[in-house]
Amino acid sequence: MTRQQRFNHIIAYFEEAMPDPETELLYDNPYQLLVAVILSAQCTDKRVNMHTPALFGRYPDIPALAEAEYDELFSYIKSISFPGNKTRHLMGMAKMVRDDFGGDIPMTVDELVKLPGVGRKTANVITSVVDNQPNMAVDTHVFRVSARLGLTVRAKTPLETEKQLIKYVPTELVYKFHHWLILHGRYVCVARKPKCGECGLRPVCPYYLKVVSKGMG
At which positions is [4Fe-4S] cluster bound (predicted)? Predict the structure, then answer.
């Protein structure tokens, strides 16, 4: 099986099993999504969703967040990982959006990565979720799952993974593809003990064929 054939099989599977994948972060607009994605770094979406309603109630938009005081903002996110850094990132991000982008969340990767707390992964998430742009966000789930499934070969960094995936995924499906891998990695192809027994991708999965099935024999 060629790599393109493997991609085609996996895409066909997900299009039937998960036709409309979406982020599990709760948001109503690009501002809320950007804040939620910044908060989600090395933290679960579930925990972030527990805290954002109160946070957005107090800081409903960029102007409000840009005027936030450190101690008060910190109090809303103190149970999220790295609250100190994220408080500073949110304050800096809001001020830059207000001062440099007229209060509107920019919608290109090059502009987004200029914002405090926004790396390439976050920028790819924002542009693909809000605008369906063909940008591939690579988090730990995507990095792990794409390697296990044989979609990437010896990719050592998220950027290498992103470039290899983009090469084989149809442009119009890129914004969906990273959600498919994230959700598959979160609930089926988990890190320590993947649930191969309930995975529909076993027939084309090198990890299952080379590691798991041989261990069963």
Answer: 189, 196, 199, 205
Is 199 one of the annotated binding-site residues? yes
Tell me the CATH number for domain 30-131. Answer: 1.10.340.30
Residue in the block written with tokens 């502009």 = 111
> How far apart, in whole angstroms, are the C-alpha atoms of residue 204 and residue 183?
18
The pLDDT tens digits of the residues spanning 5-50 come to 999 999 999 999 999 999 999 999 999 999 999 999 989 999 999 9
> What CATH architecture applies to the domain 3-21+136-216?
Orthogonal Bundle (1.10)
Query: Mind telling me the catalytic residues?
Result: 121, 139
Tell me whether residue 196 is annotated as binding. yes
Q: Which alpha helices (H) appear in the chain, and where do they start and end?
A: 3-17, 30-39, 45-58, 62-66, 70-77, 83-100, 109-112, 120-131, 140-148, 158-168, 174-187, 206-207, 213-216
Domain ranges of the chain: 3-21+136-216, 30-131
86-122 confidence digits (pLDDT tens): 999 999 999 999 999 999 999 999 999 999 999 999 9
Residue 133: burial class (beta carbons within 10 Å; 0-12, 13-18, 19+): middle
